[in-house]
Amino acid sequence: MKRIPYLHILLFILTFFSTLIAGAMFQKGIDIFKEPLRIYEGLPFSLSLMTILLGHELSHYFASKKHHTEATLPYFIPAPITLIGTFGAFIKMKSPIQTRSALIDIGASGPIAGFILSVIASIIGLSYSTVVAATDTKGALGLGNSVLFSLLTHTIIGVTPDSQDILLHPIAFAGWIGLFVTALNLIPVGQLDGGHIVYAFIGERHRLVSKVIVGVLFFFGIFFWEGWLIWGGLMIVFGLRHPPVIYWETPLDRKRRLIGFLALIIFIITFIPAPFRIL
């Protein structure tokens, strides 16, 4: 008889409510502590972000099951007093990955699923976003643009002059976060999803790539956004090595190579050198 995953369910519920609070506070003029009954206004953001995170992690989970790799259900991490209400989600691998093809499937499945859901959310959200005078957003937190999000914005809203800013709808904000998280996961370092994919292609040389990428992150941290310094430091703390697959000699087929290159393209078009700034 299978046990009910109480911890996973509890963390999911807590994260839903923490993102619900964040979504309500994202709405201009709402003080959730003074107007708690307006918490329902956080639903568009919360449901969008939770769907993106859930799609990402379940894709990892089912890809692991397909390749007979034991993995846990997703652990969601609530963060009530933050901009987005969560620190994300993750699954834990409980057995070694057997082949390079399995490594590609497991590593790429989550980012690709999250990417698709994030693009859908961005398109829907941008269609409901509004253009406001730049003076109305002075002092607010501004979001950087990736190549993809900039293209979507210009296609749906159009090119805005310097005197104007775009006030993102909560669903568009969730889509932006989803794309940013996709890029973070695809950084080819250590045991991030991008690290899995690079290891499947080049094996132990992956560690040298990880060192170079961490150096690049520190460079971006000095010249673009300080958060990259923290992210690069975390990569060093968690380790740059990747555990070996059991049957390395089994080559990658054409399909897995194409998936790996697709993941690289997704990383390039979703990466943001300076994700946050003060307007």
Description:
- With 279 residues, the protein is mostly helical.
- It has nine helices and six strands, in the order ααββαββαβαααααβ.
- The protein has helices at residues 6-26, 43-66, 100-128, 147-156, 170-186, 193-202, 206-223, 227-238, 254-270; strands at residues 75-78, 86-90, 130-133, 141-143, 164-167, 276-278.
- The strands form three sheets. The protein has a two-stranded antiparallel sheet with strand order 1-2. A two-stranded antiparallel ribbon has the order 3-5.
- Strand 1 (75-78) and strand 2 form a beta hairpin.
- The longest helix is centred in the middle third of the chain and has 29 residues, at 100-128.
- It is globular.
- The mean pLDDT is 92.
pLDDT averaged over residues? 92
Coarse structural class? mainly alpha
**Helix segment count?**
9
The count of β-strands is 6
**Strands side by side in the biggest sheet:** 1-2
Q: What does the overall shape look like?
A: globular
Main beta-sheet annotation: 2 strands, antiparallel
Give the SSE string: HHEEHEEHEHHHHHE
Q: Nearest-angstrom radius of gyration?
A: 20 Å
Strand content: 5-15%
Give the % helix: 55-70%
Uncertain runs: none
End-to-end separation: 56 Å
